[in-house]
Amino acid sequence: DAKTTQPTSMDCAEGRAANLPCNHSTISGNEYVYWYRQIHSQGPQYIIHGLKNNETNEMASLIITEDRKSSTLILPHATLRDTAVYYCIVSGTGNQFYFGTGTSLTVIP
Amino acid sequence: GAGVSQTPSNKVTEKGKYVELRCDPISGHTALYWYRQSLGQGPEFLIYFQGTGAADDSGLPNDRFFAVRPEGSVSTLKIQRTERGDSAVYLCASSLVQGGAGELFFGEGSRLTVL
Known about the structure:
The structure holds 2 protein chains of 2 kinds.
Chain A: E1 9-13, E2 18-23, E3 31-38, E4 45-50, E5 55-56, E6 61-64, E7 70-75, E8 84-92, E9 103-108
Parallel strand pairs in A: 1-9
Antiparallel strand pairs in A: 2-7, 3-4, 3-8, 5-6, 6-7, 8-9
Chain B: E1 5-7, E2 10-13, E3 19-24, E4 31-37, E5 44-50, E6 53-56, E7 65-68, E8 75-79, E9 88-95, E10 105-106, E11 110-114
Parallel strand pairs in B: 2-11
Antiparallel strand pairs in B: 1-3, 3-8, 4-5, 4-9, 5-6, 7-8, 9-10, 9-11
């Protein structure tokens, strides 16, 4: 699986957009970009995934660059409950999900 | 419930003992995953089942660790001769997608403490 690189930690003011970057320069053509988050003492929770096109759902938006070597997860209006560790994972059919250490996002009141 | 269920939620054992951790996946999910998470680290892949068979067990750290899924539903992770370094949260996840990656649904984990 392609390795991903994420910042260790980020802060975001409550109500503002949180933009979490991820680099995946060795991603293969059939690999998707997945985002999960883990709130303290809970199991990871799926947020969103995409292949080439930008995606949006009720939780977040995913922006993937044209060359697919990086992506950004956007939480449009961060709340205190969005404080969590966010994992960017690339995975394709038949492959497993390998989590890195993620980005610890702290939403500040 | 409709989610992935893991039991026990907490297990304290002594070094050298045998431990079993159980995972009940979401009904109808054919793929089942086990992960291990140590404090401050991301989940570490252990093993993946597609149906009854282990499709990928490359993450199991050594032969003290074994997992089964005899009927393609419930899975048990078995740890023999436990060591203090086995202390971690063991996470189970299931997925509907066959033969490949898809959205994983995680349980709350089983916290194992080896004294």
